[in-house]
Design brief:
The complex is a heterodimer of chains A (107) and B (121). Chain A has strands spanning 4-7, 10-13, 19-25, 33-38, 45-49, 53-54, 62-67, 70-75, 85-90, 97-98, 102-106. Chain A has 107 residues and is mostly beta strands. In chain A, the strands form two sheets. In chain A, strands 2, 4, 5, 6, 9, 10 and 11 form a seven-stranded mixed sheet that branches. In chain A, strands 1-3-8-7 form a four-stranded antiparallel sheet, with no helix packed on it. Chain A is globular. With 121 residues, chain B is mostly beta strands. In chain B, the strands form two sheets. In chain B, strands 2, 4, 5, 6, 9, 10 and 11 form a seven-stranded mixed sheet that branches. Chain B has a four-stranded antiparallel sheet with strand order 1-3-8-7, with no helix packed on it. Classes of the chains: A mainly beta (107), B mainly beta (121). Chains A and B meet through strand 4, strand 5 and strand 10 of A and strand 5 and strand 10 of B.
Chain lengths: 107, 121
């Protein structure tokens, strides 16, 4: 199975900050990497698919990059509604696997 | 609009069984893969299984293989997750999610609100 890791596991930041979250796969997944946002009590919501494509309706302050084994999610300027937990997911091969999550908290 | 609604969760004893349902609306249900993902209390996301539109292919995480079975009734726009031999570690919120594309596994564009399964004596 492909193992996904994320760093940091938690992060404190302020509104307006630029934030970067890293995701690493245990083997190459080319660009089969998605990012989801989950708020407490809610289902996850996709933000970025295929490593760098912005899902329809997602604000442009979210961006993704990377290929192979190393990927990043960047939020260019944090808004209050962005404080949530972020998960990466590989869909290169079965079983599909998620990273452990990064909790983004208000400083 | 697209809607997925899970039901069937509850409390069950270890070794017991439960059947979850995922009722869909707002899209051509008989064309899309449907996935199940679970989340143990306070923990991360774990993909559980998927089923193709025509039931020709299903796939399961090792943690549930041989115990969980997916079926679907396209006439009712519903997918069923039959869970047998349940263990305490199966305790989680179970979400169903719609695959974005019709031809491959890409990403999940719509999710249900989840149903809680608790395995406890």
């Amino acid at each position: 199975d492909i193992q996904m890791t994320q760093s940091p596991s938690s992060l404190s930041a302020s509104v307006g900050d630029r934030v970067t979250i890293t995701c690493r796969a245990s083997q190459t997944i080319i660009s089969y990497l998605n990012w989801y946002q989950q708020k407490p009590g809610q289902a996850p919501k996709v933000l970025i698919y295929a490593a760098s494509d912005l899902e329809t309706g997602v604000p442009a302050r979210f961006s993704g990059s990377g290929s192979g084994t190393d990927f990043t999610l960047t939020i260019s300027s944090l808004e209050p509604e962005d404080f949530a937990t972020y998960y990466c997911q590989q869909t290169y091969t079965m079983p599909l696997t998620f990273g452990p999550g990064t909790k983004l908290q208000i400083k | 609009q697209v809607r997925l609604v899970e039901s069937g969760g509850g409390v069950v004893q270890p070794g017991g069984s439960l059947r979850l349902s995922c009722a869909a609306s707002g899209f051509a249900f008989d064309r899309y893969l449907i996935h199940w993902v679970r989340q143990a209390p306070g923990r991360g996301l774990e993909w559980v299984a998927f089923i193709r539109f025509d039931e020709s292919t299903d796939n399961y995480a090792d943690s549930v293989k041989g115990r969980f079975t997916l079926t679907r009734d396209n006439s009712k726009n519903t997918v069923y997750l039959q869970m047998n031999s349940l263990r305490p570690e199966d305790t989680a919120i179970y979400y169903c999610a719609k695959e974005k594309t019709v031809v491959s596994v890409d990403f999940f564009d719509y999710w249900g609100q989840g149903t809680l399964v608790t395995v406890s004596s």
